[in-house]
Amino acid sequence: xxxxxxxxxxxxxxxxxxxxxxxxxxxxxxxxxxxxxxxxxxxxxxxxxxxxxxxxxxxxxxxxxxxxxxxxxxxxxxxxxxxxxxxxxxxxxxxxxxxxxxxxxxxxxxxxxxxxxxxxxxxxxxxxxxxxxxxxxxxxxxxxxxxxxxxxxxxxxxxxxxxxxxxxxxxxxxxxxxxxxxxxxxxxxxxxxxxxxxxxxxx
Amino acid sequence: xxxxxxxxxxxxxxxxxxxxxxxxxxxxxxxxxxxxxxxxxxxxxxxxxxxxxxxxxxxxxxxxxxxxxxxxxxxxxxxxxxxxxxxxxxxxxxxxxxxxxxxxxxxxxxxxxxxxxxxxxxxxxxxxxxxxxxxxxxxxxxxxxxxxxxxxxxxxxxxxxxxxxxxxxxxxxxxxxxxxxxxxxxxxxxxxxxxxxxxxxxx
DNA sequence: CCTTATCTGAACGGTACGTTCCGTTTCCCC
DNA sequence: GGGGAAACGGAACGTACCGTTCAGATAAGG
Lengths: 203, 203
Fold this sequence. Notes:
The structure is a homodimer. Chain A has two domains: 55 residues, Arc Repressor Mutant, subunit A; 119 residues, Tetracycline Repressor, domain 2 (Orthogonal Bundle). Helices cover 69% and strands 0% of the residues of chain A. The first copy, chain A, is elongated, with a radius of gyration of 20 Å. The N and C termini of chain A lie far apart (56 Å). At the A-B interface, helix 6, helix 7, helix 8 and helix 9 of A face helix 6, helix 7, helix 8 and helix 9 of B. The structure holds a DNA duplex. Chains A, B: Keywords: DNA-binding, Transcription, Transcription regulation. Chains A, B: This is TetR/AcrR family transcriptional regulator. Chains A, B: InterPro entries: Homeodomain-like_sf, HTH-type_TetR-like_transc_reg, HTH_TetR, Tet_transcr_reg_TetR-rel_C_sf, TetR_C.
């Protein structure tokens, strides 16, 4: 959108790269999912469509890179807060805030939506993208197990499925905001079950 | 797809109505979300596009009607099974089976995806479609409260958000199948919390 | 009988997709 | 210093779908 850009020769132009991600960022913030098309991004970025397709095979790939960029900017690791309750609540609420305050929420909604129409996108979402996002939670659960806050045989995957499922549900129905302590109570309930070793423990 | 249909005069032709829903059903089963376009449905049904748009303002509306039709065919009410645990597990597993065995799962994925690109579709999904689906669960929770299985002030909305959030997550990541007793354990954990009146109870 | 509403089919302008070709720029290597 | 090689923007292409409009045909209902 600024001055004219062109090739810088034999290698990739980082300005072009940034301009395209910035354009996607702005379109996402202004018009949501529907406003983001490869054509619109190219127009806004002052780039050629072949340039987009040279670096990103699909719109989903572009959105994923945008999401990761925002993530490293806005989302920090969760430090040791003394209890799994506090840490998990901080994690979930941090993610919700991230989704609300940045275009990342829009991007993520788009990525999920796209995955429902494209099998390859679904596999990449489930097998590469989501596991990366679970890394922070895994650290928290490791600490919790070391503290003895959850049983050694607790079904951690199920616990995370429930927490992220809840988050997805709120995101996809546009209800991230209604925080009447729901996250706190949900985490408390799940931790209680995971500690007892009864219900959320391995089968 | 069968013989030629035409107007039957002054009133709506039920064969046309059925043929369009059947065509959507088949396309959904064969090609998933991506295979369903208003054009493709019209072609397969041997119908005119104006006919589709006369009765359904959007693809989402068509998919919702298709979903409801399948639902009344495949999904029954949950009878009194003696415990909320059994009933909720039966409900959730029934829904998962419904999503797996019929095109309804594809339809529902499409409806959710569409809602991420269209605000009107999102509102209709959240404020009309989903509440209808919660009716069965509400009956179960009423019985549970009458039995004293969950506290009178339990946060029923949160409980359902968690259960359906989990189900959505599994549906949208195409992992409805891996039942290692996950549903049973999740329901048990939530019911325990809702009975204690501590964590899942009203704030 | 004739208004009225339905149906199919064809066509329209608009948007986006993903690709191809072109001419230009500049680095990298010889 | 010269010559690929690869990147860049721009234009155009064919395909697909969108949602709408028009035409022509059908047949119920008053």
